[in-house]
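[step 3/7] fold_predict: job queued, chain A
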Amino acid sequence: MAHYIKIAAIALMLISLSAQAQKRPQQQPSAKYAAVVQGVNYEGYAFNEDFETDITVENMAGRFTLTPAEIDTVERLIKKKIAKMNHTHEHQPNKECQLIDEHLDKYKRQYIGFINEDGDKVVWVNFLRDRRFDKLLLYEIPNITGGCSNFFHVKVNIDHHYLYGLEVNDDGEVVYTKPAIKRKYRRVSKPK
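[step 4/7] structure written:
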């Protein structure tokens, strides 16, 4: 009888553990590819040089992992120069699509560091202002179209202290496209 009670207890424990495992999100936060960053009026995720992405910058020669001091520099440059860069207010016509330079503290950020052929450090910064995507931001760079000024990105050259390449999403419905899963191994075609 005691033997059956032990078996029943073990079975219940396994069922309980299985149910708990199914409730967990499939991806767990990991410092392997991204670090959570917070500063005065900003928060986001800095992806290290090993994070695989199809995002590039002009004349890219490599990648680097940002330090907290470099992220502070990027943020200071953005706060100082984004209003001048955003003077046309493209895709920011109304209350739903507010001016990005007046609401920077409302956006979550994603940072990726690049090195160009001149040896300059260039940081691609993605800005998102839509809570539906918050859980994805540690794992991927979401590909989102539409949504106007709720989504934009800019490049920052931290060696020469300038911003460039500001792109604000078009107006329209927000459409999220899941990134393609990259193959771990190169596919080799077979001769016919």
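[step 5/7] annotate
Residues 15 and 21 are 10 Å apart (CA to CA).
The chain has a mean pLDDT of 83.
exit 0
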